[in-house]
Amino acid sequence: MAEKDLGELFLHTLKDVYFAEHEILKTLPKMAQAAKNSRLKQAFDQHHVQTEGQIQRLQQVFSLLDQKPEGAPCEAIQGILAEGSEVMEEFAGGPALDAGLIAAAQAVEHYEIARYGALCSWAELIDLEGVETLLEETLDEEKETDLLLTQLAEEAINIKSA
Ligand code: FE
Ligand code: FE
Ligand code: FE
Question: For position 106, which CATH number holds?
C-alpha cells in the first residue's frame, strides 16, 4: 500500500471542510430564526452571507489544484451540529436559549478554526501560496465571528446580573 503524503491529507481535509461549510450554511438560518436577541440574529445572518463566500473560496482552491469541488462527510461537524439542534429543541423559547445557541455556534467556529488553521499550515509547507491566501481570509472570518460571539455572550451575562 502506497503511503499517503501531505498533499493527500490536504485534499482530504479540504473536502471535509467543504462538506462542513455546506452543513453550516443550512444550519445558520435555523439559528438566526431561533435566536431571541436581535444582535445575535444579525450575527447569524451575517455569518450566513460570509459562509456563502467561504464556499466560493473553497471552490477557487479546488480549481487552483485542478480538482473538482467535492465534499467528504465529516462526523465531527455532524456531531457538533446535532448537539446544537438538541439545545435548540430543549431550550426553545426559554431564557437560556441564546446562551445555548452562542455556545453551539462557538463550537462550530472552533472546529473551523482548527481545520482552516491546519490547512493554512500545510498549504505553506507544500508551497501553495495562492491557496494559503484564500484559506487565511476564511480563517480570519471564523476568528472574528468567534470573537463577536464571545462579546455577545458576555453582554448577555451582564444584562442578567444588572
Ligand atoms: Fe465557515
Ligand atoms: Fe472529518
Ligand atoms: Fe464559521
Answer: 1.20.1260.10
Surrounding ion ligand 3 within 5 Å at CB are: 112, 142
- Residue 124 lies in domain: 6-161
Q: Is residue 46 part of a domain?
A: yes
Q: Which ligand is nearest to the CA of 23?
A: 1
Which CA distances in Å does 36 have to 5, 32, 115?
A: 47, 9, 30
Backbone angles phi, psi at 83, to 5 degrees: -65, -40
1 assigned to some structural domain:
no
Q: Could you tell me what percent of the chain has a pLDDT over 90?
A: 90
**Prediction pTM value:** 0.94
Ligand 1 centre to CA of 105 (Å) is 11
Ligand nearest to the CA of 43: 3
57 in any annotated domain: yes
The count of domains in the chain is 1
Could you read off the pLDDT of 77-87 as tens digits, one per residue?
999 999 999 99
Burial class (CB in 10 A: 0-12, 13-18, 19+), 35: buried
Ligand 3 centroid to Cα of residue 112, in Å, is 6
